Amino acid sequence: MSTWHEECGVIGLFAHESAAEMVCLGLHALQHRGQEGAGIVSFDGGRVSSHRGLGLVSDLFTPEVLGRFAGSVAVGHNRYSTTGSCRAENLQPLIAHWRRRKIALAHNGNLVNALELRREMEENGAIFQTGMDSEVIVHLLARSSGADLVERTRDALSQVSGAYSLVLSDGETLIGARDPRGFRPLCIGKLEATTVIASESCALDLVGAEYVREIAPGEMVVIDAGGLRSVPPADPVEPRHCIFEYVYFSRPDSIVFGHAVDQIRRCLGQLLAEEHPAEADIVISVPDSSNSAALGFSERSGIPFEIGLIRNHYVGRTFIQPTPRLRDLRVRIKYNPVRQVLEGKRVVVVDDSIVRGTTMRKLVKMLRRAGATEVHLRISSPPIQYPCYYGIDTPTRGELIASSHTVDEIRTYLRVDSVAYLSLENLIRSAPEGLGYCTACFHGDYPVPFETLPRKELLEEES
Amino acid sequence: MSTWHEECGVIGLFAHESAAEMVCLGLHALQHRGQEGAGIVSFDGGRVSSHRGLGLVSDLFTPEVLGRFAGSVAVGHNRYSTTGSCRAENLQPLIAHWRRRKIALAHNGNLVNALELRREMEENGAIFQTGMDSEVIVHLLARSSGADLVERTRDALSQVSGAYSLVLSDGETLIGARDPRGFRPLCIGKLEATTVIASESCALDLVGAEYVREIAPGEMVVIDAGGLRSVPPADPVEPRHCIFEYVYFSRPDSIVFGHAVDQIRRCLGQLLAEEHPAEADIVISVPDSSNSAALGFSERSGIPFEIGLIRNHYVGRTFIQPTPRLRDLRVRIKYNPVRQVLEGKRVVVVDDSIVRGTTMRKLVKMLRRAGATEVHLRISSPPIQYPCYYGIDTPTRGELIASSHTVDEIRTYLRVDSVAYLSLENLIRSAPEGLGYCTACFHGDYPVPFETLPRKELLEEES
Amino acid sequence: MSTWHEECGVIGLFAHESAAEMVCLGLHALQHRGQEGAGIVSFDGGRVSSHRGLGLVSDLFTPEVLGRFAGSVAVGHNRYSTTGSCRAENLQPLIAHWRRRKIALAHNGNLVNALELRREMEENGAIFQTGMDSEVIVHLLARSSGADLVERTRDALSQVSGAYSLVLSDGETLIGARDPRGFRPLCIGKLEATTVIASESCALDLVGAEYVREIAPGEMVVIDAGGLRSVPPADPVEPRHCIFEYVYFSRPDSIVFGHAVDQIRRCLGQLLAEEHPAEADIVISVPDSSNSAALGFSERSGIPFEIGLIRNHYVGRTFIQPTPRLRDLRVRIKYNPVRQVLEGKRVVVVDDSIVRGTTMRKLVKMLRRAGATEVHLRISSPPIQYPCYYGIDTPTRGELIASSHTVDEIRTYLRVDSVAYLSLENLIRSAPEGLGYCTACFHGDYPVPFETLPRKELLEEES
Amino acid sequence: MSTWHEECGVIGLFAHESAAEMVCLGLHALQHRGQEGAGIVSFDGGRVSSHRGLGLVSDLFTPEVLGRFAGSVAVGHNRYSTTGSCRAENLQPLIAHWRRRKIALAHNGNLVNALELRREMEENGAIFQTGMDSEVIVHLLARSSGADLVERTRDALSQVSGAYSLVLSDGETLIGARDPRGFRPLCIGKLEATTVIASESCALDLVGAEYVREIAPGEMVVIDAGGLRSVPPADPVEPRHCIFEYVYFSRPDSIVFGHAVDQIRRCLGQLLAEEHPAEADIVISVPDSSNSAALGFSERSGIPFEIGLIRNHYVGRTFIQPTPRLRDLRVRIKYNPVRQVLEGKRVVVVDDSIVRGTTMRKLVKMLRRAGATEVHLRISSPPIQYPCYYGIDTPTRGELIASSHTVDEIRTYLRVDSVAYLSLENLIRSAPEGLGYCTACFHGDYPVPFETLPRKELLEEES
Q1: What's the gap in Å between the CA of A207 and the closest CA on chain D?
Q2: Strand order in the sheet with B227-231
Q3: Taking CA atoms, what residue in B is nearest to C124?
Q4: Does B contact D via 3+ CB–CB distances below 8 Å?
C-alpha cells in the first residue's frame, strides 16, 4: 500500500519481427513501476516509429497504434512522474537526432550529478529539450570521442554518478547498462534468436522469454547482429542494491537481482511474526502488495489468514475527489472492508511500509467501523526516515511520518492498538546474502555522495 | 474466473444534494456487475441531467461530467452487453418523455415475454427506440390507466414476466421493485434523510449509507417526499433467488438476499474440501473471485493457502490481441504464475465455475510451465449445463463445456490431474436456508416458463 | 450577414451503392442550412447504420465513420438549433423502431400544432424520446390504420399543420413531402438509376445528379423498387413559399421553388438601387451572403463594386470570446476591412437583412476606422418585424430591431449616414410571379394560424 | 487558387497582460500562411507555457487551452508542412532549454546551408530534436560566444544563409529579424505599450495594433524593458523580396513590404487586361484569392465582373475523398458554379497562378458543364517554371506544368479556349518600385546560391 513510487520500468528488445508489440507486452508486465505515462520507440533500419503519452499502457497502445510500428529493435519505458510535473515533454524513451541516425534511451534511476554536468555542457553551447536528468547521458554520448556507440556510451556513463539501469539503442545495437552500485534491477532474457532486457523478469514471462541472468552492477551488455557481449565495469565498487525492490517495488512473481521476490517477502512476514508477535484472531493484508508478507506472518504466528479488505480493480487512475463533502473517497473506492470477516475480531494488518500514514489512517478507521475490535499493525520493513535520491519518487523528509514521530506517536496518529516495524537486521536477514544493499532510506547514510540536492525538480526549475 | 457475466447493476437515490455524485460512487462499487457501459440520470425538479456511454464508470464520469449534473434524485446503471450487440443505443437508464415529465428506468434482469408484449403494442402504434426488453415496461406504464406513477408501475409490472430488479423515477417519486420470484437482488439503505436502493450492499457502503433490508420478492418500495412505503406483492409465489449470486456474481463484501456473501463462499470451499479432498501441497485461488472459497478449502483440508497467481490490475478492458502470433495473451497479461510458489508442488486450484473451459485450460498450462507437478481443479458449484434466461449473459447450451462433456472428458480437455465439482446438495446447504433458489442452470428446470426463446438478441433482430 | 438561421437541410437518396457517402456530399452542400449538428441513417435491407452528432459535416463524417455505413438507401439532416437547447438528443434523422423495422425521418420546418397532438397521444400512452416537434409525425404514422408506409404517412401528415419539407424512409420506400403551403423548398434530382430528394439543388450538383423539379406544395413523392410516383395534395390551398429563401437562406447557386436564386438576388440589388439611390464612390457587400445583391446595386447605380471586407474562412464555429477585454472579436476575426479600398471613400454597404443590428453596428465601426468617410446602408429586404414560426430560428419580437425602432432610429443606432430598406412591393416584384409567398415576418399576417405560441421551446419545457 | 503554399506565419508580442491570447488572434489572421499546425509559447518570468499541435488555430486554441497560458511575452507560429512529413515533432515555435532559461523561436523561410551546419555541429556533439532547418539557428545561438541573447542571435544569423523572417524570445527580450535579402515579410506594430512583430499587417489589425513599419532586410529589431532598438545589417546587399507575396501569398487587406497588397493585385488585373484582352461576356474570379485581380481585369476591360463560382466555407481541411468512384470531389465540394450566371456566356476566368494545373482543369470542366460557351483563362503572373527554395512548399520542377509545357500545350491540357499569363515586365511594373524582388520561380536565376539541394526533406532523411 506504499505511496512510495518507483519512477520507471524499462525494456529493450533485439531481433523480433514484432518488436514494438513485444515491448508493449513487457510494459504491461512492468506497469506497476510507472503508471503516469509510457513510450515505445522502434527501429526499422533507418526508420524510427515512436509513440509516447500520458496514461496506462493499455490506453496508449491500442492495436491501431501498435499497427503503425515497424522494425525488429525496440525500446520501451513506463514512467512515474512526481506530482505536479507530470508533463508530456518529460516522457521517455528519449529520442535524439544525432549524425544521420536516431538514438532512443530509456532510463530507470536518478543521476546525482546531472545538474552540474548540464550546466557545464550548456556553457559550451548544448541545447536541452527536457527537464530530465537522463538527457545529460545523450549529450555526453554525442560529445564523446569514442569510435562507436558502445565506446561512447561507456565514456558517457563514466562521467555520471547516481542510479541508472538503462536501455539504449540506435537500431543496430541494443545496450543495457547498470550503474556501478547496481541500485535498480535489470535482467536479460532470451526467446529463440531474440534478446530482451527488462527491469524485472515478469516482463520476460509475458513475452515468453526465458530468464538468463541479471546484468551485473557496472556491467554493460551489448547486443547486435554479432550476438551478445559483456563489457565489465572498469573499477568495481561495492554494490548497493535497493532493498526496497524486495520489500515493495517489484512484482512478487519477478526474479530481481537474481532472486525470487515472493520468497523473500514471505520470509519478511515470518520474521516479522517472530520479532513482533500479536494476540489476535486473524491476519489480513492490504491487497495486493502485502499479500506475501501477510501469508508469512500467518504461517509463522499460526493466526489464520483472512481476506478482510476487497480491492476494487476498476478504479480509474484519473479519479478525482468529486466534492469536498465526500472525504476519503479514493481510499473508500479502492478498498472495502468485509464486515463478516472483521466483525468482533482482533485483527493483525500486515503492510510493507508507511510513508505519510494518511492512507493507513483511513484504512484503520474503515476496519474499526466494520467491527474490528483491535487493530495491530505490523510493517515488514523498518521506519522510512530519509528520502531516496536514487530513482524513487519520495516525499520530502518532513512528510515522512517516521522522520519526526516515534513509533508510539505513530500508533496514536493511526489509532491502532499496536504498531511494530521489522528491524533492519531482520530485513537484511530475509534478503539474499552477499548482494550488498542500499538501506539509506532507513538511516540516511547515502552510498553515493552529492553536493547539491539532486532532485529532478531542481533541474526543471533551473532549466 | 467465470466468464458468465451479470448483465447489470442498478442504483437509485432520493433526497441528497449531490445525488448524481452519490449514484456515481454506487456505480463504482457495482462495477463488477457490468463493465461495458454506464449511465446516470438526475432530476432537479423538472430539469433532467443525463450521461450514458460505453466504458468504465471512472472513465465516463469525470469530475467535469459530474459537475454538469444537478438535482437531488438520481438513477444509475452499469451494463454488461452481450458480445456483438454492445451498442450505445442500448444503454440505460432508459429515459422516456411522457406527459410533460420524464421517467428514468434502470433494470437488472431479463423479461421472458417482452417480445410478445412489444409486438402487441407496436400493432397499436407504439414506437420503440431501443432493442432492450426493458423498454416494454415504460410503454406499459404509459398506457396504464393508473392514477399515478405508483399505480401505473404496479399495473405495468403485473403484465411482464421474468426477472427484474428495477429502479424507476420521475424526479418526484423513486420506486424500487423486484419480480415475484426475486431472481436478482435489490436492497435498501439509509443515510440520514437520504434513501438508497441498490443491487448490492457494497454500493451502500461506498456512499456511506447503512444497510436496512432486502426488498422482498414481488415487493414494490415507493419513496417520495412523504417517506418510504411498501407495496406488497398481490399474489406471492415461491421465490427463486439466483444461487449464482452467492457463487460468483456478487462482491464478497456485499450482503445479498439478506446474507453476507463472503461467509457463504467460505462455506462452499469447506464443503468442497469435504466432498472432494485432494492430495496436494498447496491450495491456490484464481484471484480475486475464488479467494474466499480457496481459503475455505485450505481451512477444511489443512493444505496451506498460497498465492500462486498474480493478477495484473492494469489490464485495459479494451485490450485486443495484437497479432495472431501472440496467442493466449489476454490470459497471460491478466495472470502470471509465481514460479517460486508453484515449482515442484502438487497444486489444488479452487475456482467458482467453468463455462467454456478455454481460459482455465490456458491457466493450467501456465501453472504446469511454472513447475506445478500436479494440478487438481476443484469447482465450488455444480456443472453449468443450461443457459440462464433471467438476466445473465450466458453462451448457448452448445458452448457450455459441461452440457456436452462428462467430468472425465473435461479433465482430459483441461489437462488437469483431477477435477471435481461441488454437488447441488452441498451448494444448497451452504446457502441460507429458506430463501428458495433458482438452480436452473444446473438442471434446466426453469421456474418461469417461456414459449419462445426469450433472448435479447431476438428483440433486436426483429425490431 | 443575417443572423436569422435556417433550421435544417434535408436529403434522401434511393438506390445507390454508396448511399451514405452520397448523402454526406449532399449535406456538405447544404451545410449553410444548419451547422450545429448533422446525421445520416442508411438502410441495407433490415440493417440500419446511423451516426448523428454535434458539429460540422466534415468533422462528423470522416472517411472512417463513412466506412461503417452500408446500404443503398439513406437519409440525412443538417440541424441548426436554437441557442441553449443545442442538445444531442434533438438531432435528426429521427429513428423509430416500429414493427420489426426502423424508420428514419428528416424534417425541415416547424409544426404549429405539435404540442396539442403530442399531449393527446401521451394521454393515450405514447412515449416520446425527444423534444422535437418532428417526433409527432412518427407517432401519428405508427398509430395510423393505413395499410402501408405511404398511406400511413399521408394519414399522419393530414393531421399536422405548419411547415414541413421532409424525407422519410424505412429502407424499402423513400418518401419526400411538402406541406400544403410549401413554406420550405424540396426538390428532386436523378443520377442514372438513383433518385435524390434535397432541400436545394446545390446538393444535387455535388452528388452529380440532374435537377428534375421541385416537389409541389402538398405533394408527396414516393420512390421504391417500382420507380417514382406522385401523390397529389387532397385539398390544394394557396401556396406560401418563404420569400426569405430568396433573400438570404438558400445558396445563390441553387434552384429553389423552381427558380435560380442568384438572378433573383441580383434583381433585388437592382431595384434597391432604383428605390434608394445613394451618392457614393463604391459599393461593397458583406461577403459572401450579399455579394449578388451588391453586384446588382452596382450595376444599376453605376457605382463601382469593390471588395472592402475580407472574410476569414478559417474561423472555427466554436470560437468563444477569450476575455471580456477583447470585445467585438468574433466580428473582427470574421471580417477585416481593406483600408486601401475604403480610405477616403463614401461607401454603400449592401446587406440582405438586419435582425438585431449588433453585428452591423460593429462592422460599420470597422469601416469608419478603415477610413470610410460615409457609410450608406442598403438592405435588400423590408424591415423584419415579426418572428417566423415556420422553421426559422428567430429571436423574439422584442429583439428584432425593426419591431421597435423607426428607420431613423436604426440609422442612429448603427451610426450610418443613411439606411434604406427595399419595399415589400419591390421584393415581390423581384421574386418569380405566381408562386405565392409567405411574407409574415414583415407584417405579422401569418398564413397558418396557431392558438398557442408554437415554439419548439415550449415542447421542450413541457415534455 | 494556387496550390503553392506559404510555409509559415510568425508573430511575437512584448508586454501585454494577455500575451498568449493576443498572439492567438494574430495567428487567426495569419491562418492563410499555414494551416497544418500551430503553436504558441508564452513567458511569465521564468515560467514557460506552450501548446503546439496539428490543426487549425481555432481548433487548437480553445478558451480552455488559452486559459492555461500566463505571461506578458509570447511567440506564435502557423505551419504549412510538406505532404507526408506533417509530423508533430516538426511544429514550432521551437523551444530550447539553455542555461536555466528557455528560448522560443518561430521561423518563416528556408535556410539553404542548414544541412552543412548541422552536420558540422553534430560532429562536435550536438543533439538535434527535430528535422527542421530552423533548429540550427538555436544551436548556433547556444554555441556563440556572444555576451547576451542579442549578440548571440546576430552571431548565429551571420552563419546561416537563405530566407528567414523570425521571431525569437527568452521571455526578457523579443527579437525580430529578416535575412539580408528580405525574402519573407515581417512588420512591426504598436498597441499602447505593447509591441507586436508579425508576418503581415492583418495580424496587427486583429489585435488592434497600429502598423509602424516593415523590418528592413538584414535588420534585427530588439524589444525589451528598455524599449525598441534596431540593429542594422552589417553588410547590406541588394534585397530580393518575394514578389509572389504580392501575387498570391499575403492577404489582400495586408500591408506587406510596406505596401498595400490589394492595390497591387488590382493593378495586376488591369495590366493583364491590357496585355491579354479577351472577347467575352463576363469576368469571374476563383474566390477568394483572385478577387482583386479579377475586379481589376473587369475594370480595365469593361467586361462585367460576376460571381460565377460559389465557395463552400465549411469544407473541413481533413476532408478525404471517400471512395475512388467519386472523383474530383475536393474541388466540387469547395466550388460550385452558378449556372444562371454562366449559362450561354463567354467567360474570362482570372486566377493568380497555375502550379500543376490539375485543379484548374477540373474547374474548367465544371464551368463548361454549367453552360459556359467559352472559357478564357487569364493568369496574373508569369508561368512558374522553377521551385522555390526560400520558404515556399513547391512541387519538384517536373510537376510544374509550365516547366515542361508550352502555353499552347497548357491550353490544350486545361481545355480552355485561350490562356495567357501576365509578363514578368508587367508584374514588376505593378509592384512597388525600388524594392528589389526575387523572381527566381519564373526563370531559375536564384539570388542566394546553394551547393546541394537545400530541401527540408533532405534534412529529415539524413537525420
Answers
A1: 31
A2: B94-98, B101-108, B165-169, B174-178, B220-224, B227-231
A3: B143
A4: no
Are D232 and D282 members of one domain?
no
pLDDT bin (cut points 50, 70, 90) of residue B97 is confident
Residues B164 and B290 in one domain: no
C182 and C78 co-located in one domain: yes
- Per-residue model confidence (pLDDT) at position B328: 66
Nearest residue, CB atoms, C100 vs list B124, B129, B463: B463
- What confidence tens digit (pLDDT) does each residue in D68-115 have? 899 999 999 998 754 334 456 678 999 988 777 899 999 999 999 998
Q: Which residues of A are catalytic?
A: 8
Residues of chain C with Cβ-Cβ distance to D306 below 8 Å are 295
- Interface residue of C41, C127, C132, C458 to substitute, partner B, most B CBs within 10 Å: C127
* β-pair type (C47-54, C73-79): unpaired
What average pLDDT does this structure show over A29-53? 91
Question: Given a cut of 50, is residue A461 above it in pLDDT?
Answer: no
**Whether residue D234 is found in the same domain as residue D314:** no
CA nearest to B392, candidates B24, B52, B8, B91: B8
Q: 3-state SS of C116-169?
A: HHHHHHHHCCCCECCCCCCHHHHHHHHHCCCCCHHHHHHHHHCCCCECCEEEEE
Interface of C with B (CB under 8 A): 95-100, 102, 119, 122-131, 138-139, 142-144, 461-463
Q: Looking at the structure, do residues C180 and C306 belong to the same domain, yes or no?
A: no
pLDDT level of residue D220 (50, 70, 90 thresholds):
very high
| CA distance, residue C257 to nearest chain D CA (Å) | 15
Alpha-carbon gap: D315 to the closest alpha carbon of chain C (Å): 6
DSSP one-letter code for D250 = S
Q: Roughly what angle, to the nearest 10 degrees, separates helices D135-143 and D114-123? A: 50
Are A18 and B319 in contact (CB < 8 Å)? no
- The size of the A-B interface in CB pairs under 8 A is 148
Of the three residues D240, D274, D291, the one that is the final residue of a domain is D240
The structural domain count of chain D equals 2
We report the CATH number of the domain holding residue D297 as 3.40.50.2020
- Residue B253 distance to chain A (closest CA, Å): 5
Tell me which residue range forms the domain holding D351.
262-437
Please check whether residues C310 and C342 belong to one and the same domain: yes
Q: Classify residue C255: in a domain, yes or no.
A: no
Residue from B22, B250, B253, B286 whose CB has the most chain A CBs within 10 Å, to mutate? B253
Tell whether D207 and D304 lie within a shared domain: no
Chains with ≥3 CB–CB distances under 8 Å to D = A, C
- Asked whether residue C247 is domain-assigned, the answer is no
Q: Which one of B262, B292, B307 has the shortest CB-CB distance to A295?
A: B307
Per run of 10 residues, the mean pLDDT along chain C (length 463 residues) is: 69 96 94 91 90 87 87 94 52 86 93 92 89 92 92 96 96 97 98 97 94 98 97 92 95 95 96 98 94 96 94 60 56 88 97 92 95 98 93 82 95 98 98 95 90 48 35
A206-253 pLDDT, tens digit each: 999 999 999 999 999 999 999 999 999 988 999 999 999 999 999 999
| D301 within domain boundaries | yes
Between chains, do C131 and B97 touch, taking CB under 8 Å as contact? Answer: yes
CATH code at C146? Answer: 3.60.20.10
C-alpha cell at B83: 458480445
Burial label for A284, CB within 10 Å (0-12, 13-18, 19+), is: buried
Q: What is the pTM of this model?
A: 0.84
With DSSP H G I counted as helix, E B as strand and the rest as coil, what are the percentages for chain C, rounded to 5? Answer: 30, 25, 40
> Of B179, B211, B240, at which residue does a domain stop?
B240
CB contact under 8 A, D314 and C57: yes
In the block, which residue shows the cell 451479470?
B6
Same domain for B78 and B17: yes
Question: Considering only alpha carbons, which residue of chain A is nearest residue B33?
Answer: A314
Of C195, C59, C184, C187, which Cα lies nearest the Cα of C134? C184
pLDDT higher than threshold 80 for residue D311 = yes
Highest-scoring range by mean pLDDT, B270-279, B352-361, C329-338: B270-279
Pick from A32-46, A422-436, C161-175: least confident: A32-46
Residue A366 inside a domain? The answer is yes
